[in-house]
Amino acid sequence: MTWPEPSSALGWVVLVVELALRVVALGVIPGNRKPSTGMAWLLLIMVEPLIGFAIFLLFGRTRIGGRRITRQRVAVDTIRRRVAAHDLSFDTSALPPTLAGVADLNRTLGALPMTGGNEVQLLADYRTVIAEMAAEVDRARSHVHVEFYIVAWDEVTDPLFAALQRAAERGVDVRLLFDHLGTRRIRGYHRTLRRLRDSGIEWHPMLPIDPLRGRFRRPDLRNHRKILVVDGAVGFTGSLNLIEPGYHHPRNHRIGREWVELMVRLEGPVVTGLNAVFASDWYVETGETVDLVAVHGEPDTREDEELDVPCQVVPSGPGIVAENNLRMFTTLIYAATRRVSLTSPYFVPDESLLYAVTTAARRGLEVELFVSEVSDQVMVGHAQASYYRALLEAGVRIHLYPAPFVLHSKHFTIDDDVAVVGSSNMDMRSFGLNFEVTLMLPAPAVVARMRQVEDRYRALSRELTLSEWDRRPARTRYLDNVMRLTAALQ
Prior knowledge:
two-stranded parallel sheet, Endonuclease, Chain A, alpha/beta, globular, Cardiolipin_synthase, membrane, 16-stranded mixed beta sheet
C-alpha cells in the first residue's frame, strides 16, 4: 500500500488506526473460528489492516439476520413437535451401534429422525430426472413444493415447468423457491422471471439481497438445497439444478461441457422430512406456514427401486448447530472398516475432514475420491488441487473424471453399510456457508446400487499418480496454495 508521510497528521492517524485494528483483530478474529480460518483472516488484516478489516466485516460473519434466525428457530421447533406427534421414527437399535449413534446425532442437531419403510431409486441421467419429476407433477392432486439453488426455464427444464403450470391451473398449490444470487447470475434470468409471473406458480427468491428495501447480509451465503415434493408422498433430492446441463454458458456449449448429476427418487415417510425442510425455508422467506399432509395414491412399484429402506434427512446451514453435515461425514469415515468412496465436485476439506480421509487410508482401508479432471471454478479448482499431495501420500486413489464434463454429483459410501447423497459438497463453503440437504441411507442394497454408479465413474476416469503430480510447474503449485488460503477466509 502507499503510506502517507509519517510527519503528516493524516499519516499518524492511519498508523494509529492500523495498529489498533491489528491489536483488535488478535483478540476478536480467533473467537469461535477454526484455527486455520482465524489465521487466514489475521494474515489478511496484518498485511492490509484497513482493507482486510473491511472485507472481514462484509464476509467474515455468517449472520443471516435477526428475523430470519427467529423464523428458523420457530420452524425447527415446529418440525420437532410434528415429528413427535406422528411417531415417524425408525428403531435405530436395529442398526450397527455406530450408525445408530450417527442417526441420533443427526436428529439432535437437525431435528429429523431416521424413518423406515421407504422406497429409493437412483437417477443418474440428466434429462430422465427432469422427465420423472414432470411425470410426478402431472399426477399431483394437492401440492407441489419445489426448491432449487438454480432455476432456469429453458428447453431442457420446460417439461417440468410446463407440468408445474398445468398443476397450478387445475388448482394444485405449486410453490417454488430458488436462491436469489445463485439464479440471478444465470443467462436468461429475467426471461425466467417473466415466464414465472405468467404461470400461476407461487414463487419467491431465497436469501434475497435488496439494499433499497433493507435486505442485506453476507453476500456469499447461499441456499444450495435441491428438493421437489409432490403431495407429500413422492420426493426428489440430490445434486441437479433446474437448468440445462451446459448452464447457459456459450463456452460450455462450444467445448461440449455438461454437468453430470445424481438424484434420488423417494417414497415413504422420509418424504415428510424433505417436505418439512421445504416448509421451514418457505416460512423463513415468506412468514407463511404450509400444509404437509401427504396425499397417497396407488403404490408405484418399480424393478429398479429398493424397498423398505431406512432414510434420514439431514438439513444443514447457518443457524443450525455448527456444521452438522461435516460432523456426520467425519464420524462415518472414522467408522469405516474396509472401504470409503467419495464423490464431490469441490473437495476443499477443513482439517477434520482431511484427517478423517487420510487416516482411513493410512489405516489400510480402500479410499478413493472422484473429482473432475478440470474444475468449472478456477479458484476452487486450484484450492482443491492443493490437497492432492497429502491425499496421494496417504494412499487415497484420486480418479479424474474426464474433461470437458463436470462431475457435479455429491455422494459417498462407507463399507457395504451406508450411502450418503444430497446437495452438500465436501468443502468449507458447504459446511459453513450454504444451506444444504443430505440423505443418510444405512442400507446395503442402496450401497450396491451406488457402487454401480461409482464403477461407471471409475471406468470413465483416469487415476492421478503422485509422480504425475510432482511434475507440475512451480507457478501452478504456488497458485494452488494461494487459492487454498482464500478458501479458509470464512
